[in-house]
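Hi C.,

You asked whether I'd gotten around to modeling the 227-residue construct. I have! Everything is below, sequence then structure, no commentary in between.
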Amino acid sequence: MFKKVTFVFDLDGTLVDTAPDLTNALNHALKLHGHPPVEAERVREAVGRGAPAMIFEALGTGIGTDGILADFLVHYEANIAAESRPYPGAVAALEGLTAAGAKLAVCTNKRERLARLLLDTLGIGHHFAAIAGRDTFDVSKPHPGHLLGTIAASGGTAARAVMVGDGAVDIQAAAAAGVPSVLVSFGYCPPPPEGPRPGAVIDRFETLQTAAGLLLKRLTDRDPSPS
């Protein structure tokens, strides 16, 4: 059904609920530097833009935060899957897509090494033909080059790809790359109404194949050239 189709997944807030471990690591680093803790909700809102954005959200500045970032990364790596778990249905969705002939990839604004560590610690890294972080290429989401580079690294093509994410940076990257997108409604930071809109929205992973199939069919009916 999805032969030659590449499904590119965001990681935090899409495949895996990482907010508890990210919040714990950030608050650990903030405490070391004499700052008060930040609520998990504020962390969730910034997750898709990477660790520096989370620190900025907590402090209102990015100036002089290198030490906080360094301590955050040390604590986070040591506790990367203490509480983080795949969302319900995520692993079954990956297995189902693979069985249907799809290629799978991850495009995340988490550092590549940490993304690989998280996925391998959770036992799901083997599902992906490519895993690209914010430091894999010269650009990161919402720049379309991040998504396009991930698709190419997986052996796929943009003409036969779908981006699955939870936030504005995912939908923006997909729109700029000319790639259809599916938004998961259970993630951290849904895109604002004034930005690019996803082609489909799902509330649970069990409906991903159906939503993506309809989305790709609409595109194929409009332009039958990709094959």
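If it helps when you're writing up: The beta strands are 6-9, 16-17, 85-86, 103-107, 130-132, 161-165, 181-184, 200-202.

Thanks,
B.
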